[in-house]
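Q: Could you write out the predicted structure for this multi-component system? I'm mainly interested in how the pieces pack against one another.
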Amino acid sequence: MTEIADILISASFWAAILRIASPLIFATMGELICERAGVLNLGIEGIMVFGAFAGWMAVYAGLPLWGGVAVAMLGGMAFGALHGLLTVPFGLSQHVVGLGITMLATAAAYYAYRLALPQVTNPPRITPFQPLHIPVLSNLPWLGQALFSQTALTWAGFAAAGATALVLFRTPLGLAVRAAGENPQAVEAQGLSVTAIRMGAVIVGSGLMAVGGAFLTMSAFSSFFFEMVNGRGWICIALVVFGAWKPGKALLGALLFAGFDALQIRLQQTGLGQVVPYQVFLMIPYLLSILALIAMSRRAEVPAALMTPFNRGDR
Amino acid sequence: MRLEPIAAPSHARTLVPPAIAIAATIAVAGLLAALAGANPLQTFGLIVKGAFGSKFAALETLNRATPLVFTGLAVAVAFRARLWNIGAEAQLYAGALMTVLIGTQLGLPGPLAIPLMALGAVMAGALVLLGPVLLKTRLGVDEVVTTLLLNFVMALFISYLLEGPLKDPMGMGWPKSPSLPRDARLPRIVDGLRLHWGFGLALICAAGVWLIQTRTTLGYEIRAVGANPQAARFAGIPVTRVLVKTALLSGGLAALAGFSEVAGLKGNLTTDLSASFGYTGIVVAMLALLHPMGVVISALFVAGIFVGADSMSRAAQVPTYIADLLLACALLFMVLAILLTRFRVVRG
């Protein structure tokens, strides 16, 4: 038990939580926006892969870091537009289209990777985002390292979560988005276009997912690897459910989840790691996600019109 | 814009959109080849030649199609009932694991071992899908996410077994299971040709699923639940029981892909036994419009694309991932095309 206590009081553990949570926060907010508007976006996994690739490739090709983030975001928005076009005006199955988008975006990233770097076995590195030095706070003993040694992209993730909450719950636009996911007929009766609102939500949400992916190659690591997203997108869908479709709770969920992930990585190095095979530790994130879904199943307030296409003229 | 159903679609209505979808897929593939600096027509030629151009190539394609028929059927059966089983990958590995366990640990003679391996595989695969389905029917937990997440859990579990208790002591340190004894392998259909009876079993399963769907009460109930669960319940169909039966069927079929790959082709279990066959099964099933006989044709097409692209990328400088891209495009274009055979887009 002292080993766990040692982990919990180490500053690097808390820093790791924020680092691991960052991509999840971006992508969870993206998914949450889509689902609030009534569209389940299973393209999330592939869009994250594409974002991870596109941001990294753009920087490798000479763009500044924020330029890379913008490229990733635009790429994600393009896939979001395709997803939105097929599921919103055409009302196609959100399951099938979402999985199709995941396959398309993943394959597009891999194809482009091989086009750009035909022979390499080790992908080239870029200089990723560096920890942002915050005057005074970063110099605090322990706290400075634990909480204030993050890159700008992590802070951008928290800002994105705050903005998502603010827009969804404090602006007329947010009200329209939520209404599109709860009662699209009422939105249409107000003279607003459900199609436009849902399309917009899917495009913006997909952009955030791609930035979540880009965090992996541009802040957490410095290269692009196949399968580096590794189910994080699916975990984010579970986090949206866990957060009961509320940005604050989803943010807490992402942090909690990252806490368990950071803990299991460190437990592998302890005496426990000698006894328990490492695969068991690696299973923990996926099993936790399933448990979260089960725990929330009775209480979750699903947007009433989630996965229900809206076709003007239908009664 | 809005969609208006067409009461009686004309022949042109039913044929033109899918034809355009096919043309669009080919156009995208051509563009991708051109992006790689290759001649599109030459690239297509190399893909077709690599897939069907020789006896060796055609057999390779049939071998690659075999697991895809199983996973395609698994997805088709489940999606028909709107049970979103995205976990065929995990069920495949469960089946492969059971095949290896029964084949190597029990020391049974071949004629007894083979049917037992298949049966064990089916049961293991069915069990893996049963969990998510019970969570869906009892607690309303979305099965898409649970089946997806279980794919990762299963991959890690297999990795653990292959590095631990199930590791082949003769494997030179590689994480692989011991190999099945010779007489516990599926025989070849024709002597000397590298095609095993797994393919035959896949065809039998396709016919079996077709019979279930068209000739049995369960088939009717599955369609009713898929079309409208509330209405089905109202009509007295035991929806939960139908979903559980569908899950057992779907999980079992996916597991047979693992059985067939181990017992027919590889002889042992490794962590790369499946080249995403579980996920590719979704494309196979959708391109077949969830029709079991269509799954066979669609699996051959998809396998041909993969085998052909592998062979093509060795000759031309086009990355083999063109196959994945092409199939994802085909899937999205096709679902849109099928919609447009039944609906008209009108303004306003």
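A: Regarding packing and overall arrangement: Residues 86 and 92 of chain A are 6 Å apart (CA to CA).
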